[in-house]
Design brief:
With about 240 residues, the protein is α+β, with helices and mostly antiparallel strands. The chain has two domains: about 70 residues, Winged helix-like DNA-binding domain superfamily/Winged helix DNA-binding domain (Arc Repressor Mutant, subunit A, Orthogonal Bundle); about 160 residues, Chorismate lyase (3-Layer(aba) Sandwich). It is built from eight helices and ten strands. A six-stranded antiparallel β-sheet has the order 4-5-6-9-8-7. A hairpin with a 2-residue loop joins strand 5 and strand 6. Helix 1 packs across helix 3. The two termini are about 35 Å apart. Keywords: DNA-binding, Repressor, Transcription, Transcription regulation. One of its GO terms (molecular function) is DNA-binding transcription factor activity. This is Trehalose operon repressor. It holds the Pfam family GntR. InterPro entries: Bact_HTH_transcr_reg (IPR050679), Chorismate_lyase_/UTRA_dom_sf (IPR028978), TreR (IPR012770), Tscrpt_reg_HTH_GntR (IPR000524), UTRA (IPR011663), WH-like_DNA-bd_sf (IPR036388), WH_DNA-bd_sf (IPR036390).
Amino acid sequence: MKENKFISIYEQLVDKIKRGDWRPNTKLPSENELVEQYQTSRETIRKALNLLSQNGYIQKMKGKGSFVLDVSRFDFPVSGLVSFKEVAEKLGHTSTTIVKEFELVKADQDLCTQLGATKKDLIWKVVRAREIDGEKIILDKDFFHKKYVPHLTKDICKGSIYEYLEKDLGLKISFAKKEISVDELTDEDKCYLDLKDYEHIVVVRNYVYLEDASLFQYTESRHRLDKFRFVDFARRGI
């Protein structure tokens, strides 16, 4: 247990940052103050601070101390391929999925382009509003090629489609190409989301491939401007 004390201190410090006890750009207490506060060694405190730095919670400035970075928005990973359910569980906030549209459609010209389909192909269309802490702030528009997803239901769409695809259908989802842009709101956005006075929305377009490089899904994930930051945290090693 003693060896893991720095993990416990790290988690306590993260809680303070997330609660807003220390605002962005606030200087953390000094190492000496933290040693006194947590009744531990300087080495343990340094390990906890290094972990905070590695995970993007603080910036350590030589000769000045450690300063809190802005973590007030929901972190949505740019790299990596995760479902909304996985992100919501990591955030630890109350979330709900509302299925707005669910149907099997023939591929139109746009879907033929996005999914490499033909006009004879059938495509599952799923439109879902994502509610976090009582506000609908994401609109996910998913299109799945029926060739790869032969069966889908509205109940499945209320939960995690990826969980169903991987565990029940045995699909090996491998990688995605992502495009991010800021677009003007559509009537659909205004109808399905709680947008306040915003006139634009952040759109993440995903082209998702299976292990054999087959393109089986195209997604437009539309996010309210003020609620998310898209994170691919990196540090340059010297």
